[in-house]
Amino acid sequence: MLEAPRSMAELILDWILNGIPIRVDVKLFDDVSLIYEAQLAKMELSKWWDDLESFRKRTAYFEEVNGKKSYHYFISDIKGKGQIGRTCQYLTHWHYPYKAKFHPQMIKALINWIGLKKPQKLLDPFVGSGTALVEAKTMGIDSIGIDINPVCTLMSRVKCDLLDLSPEDLNSVPMEKAFHFFDRKRRKLGHTSLEKFVENNTERIVQLSSDERVARFYEPSYLYALSDFTYVKKDLWKGFNENIDAIIDTVEKFGKLEEELRLELGNVDVREGDARSVPFKDDENVKCS
Ligand SMILES: C[S@@+](CC[C@H](N)C(=O)[O-])C[C@H]1O[C@@H](n2cnc3c(N)ncnc32)[C@H](O)[C@@H]1O
Hints:
The chain is of the alpha/beta class. The protein has helices spanning about 10-15, 35-50, 50-60, 70-75, 105-115, 130-140, 150-160, 165-170, 175-190, 195-200, 210-230, 235-260, and strands spanning about 25-30, 60-65, 70, 120-125, 145, 270, 285. The strands form 2 sheets. A 4-stranded parallel β-sheet has the order 6-5-4-7, with helices on one face. It has a 3-stranded antiparallel β-sheet with strand order 1-2-3.
C-alpha cells in the first residue's frame, strides 16, 4: 500500500526532532515555513528538551508542548496593527513603525538558545526600538538596552513600560490634552528632525502626568499618527485616537493574560548613550552575546 505523502510541516518537524535524544511531544506554529525559522526552532528545542514545562513558557516557534498551548501562543494572540502570523507586531511591538527592528519571535528563540535565565541579564547595546527588551521582559528576564538615538530610547522605554501599566493609568490623561501638548510643540518647532522633537519634550513632558511612564506613552502614538498624516494624509487627530485606543486594548488584554498565566515580568533599564563607552558595574550580571 502506498503511504500518504507527508506535509511540509511534518517533514520540518521530523528534521527538528532528529538529534533530540528523547521523544518530545511538540507542535510547531502553522506559519513556520522558512529555513531560518526551522533552524531557530531546532536550536531553541535543542537547549530546552530536558525541561519541557519551562520550554512551554518560553518557546518562540512551538504552538504546543506536551499537548498544552505555549505561552507564545497566547502572547502573540494579542494582535497589533499589521500583524500576520506569530512573528511580528504582537503585544506592544507594533506601537511605532521602525523598519530596522528584529523579528521578535526570532530574538526570543535566540534568547532561548543562549539559555538566558534569571538572574542573568540581557544586554542589547544597540537596542533600537526595544524588541529584545520586550521579549526578555515577558520571559521574566531583566535587561539593559543602550542606544545613542533618543527616539530609540523613547520607543524602547514606552514599549516596555506599557506592559507594567493599566488602561486606567493610560486613561488618566485626557486625550485632547496629550494631543495638544505634542501638536503645539510641533507647530512651535516647525520643520525639525524626530530626534530634536523628542529631545525638546523631555523636560516638559511631566506636565502631562507625574508618572513619567504615562506621560511618555502618548508621544509614539502622536509620532505614528504624524507619520500616517505625512505619508498617507490620514487625519492627525483620528490617527492619534486610533493608536491610543489600539494600545489601550493591547494593555488591557495583556493585563488579563499576565494574571491568568501568572507571568513574572523582567525589569528593564534603558540608557541613552554611546555603547562603546557605557561602563557596567561588576554586580550587573550582564551576559554578553
Ligand atoms: C538596527 S538598529 C537595532 C534595532 C533593534 N534590534 C530593534 O529590534 O529595534 C541599530 C541601532 O543601533 C544604534 N547605534 C548605532 N551606533 C551606536 C552606538 N555607538 N551606541 C549606541 N547605539 C548605537 C542606532 O541608533 C540604532 O537604533
